[in-house]
């Protein structure tokens, strides 16, 4: 083994692949629950998925935040749209179950303190999965009728 290979850093995972994996996992879960789903592709998009529940005639705009391991999801309180549904996806290692945390945008917008001071941090805002446990597997949100 050469000195050069001993000091090589592990290859960083492509963030776009992580994001796309998260979106596809969420789309699959929604399809499994009989919602019609449309993916939007491209960088700098405002919406990741459109979902329609034919049973309730309700349409959803979905933002997906994905991470491969238990770390902060980068999201800024100032950029939250109260009308969206936010799905935080913890992909985990291959062979381990994916974890989902489904949060109404309205809750993120109106209750920032619920998600700790880091959610409103001006330099590196984010939400840790530990504070999302109340929203784990909250798929029933997509079955609610419009208010």
TrEMBL record:
Under the heading InterPro entries, the entry gives: tRNA_endonuc-like_dom_sf
Origin, by domain of life? Bacteria
The terms under GO molecular function for this entry are: nucleic acid binding
What name does this protein carry? PD(D/E)XK endonuclease domain-containing protein
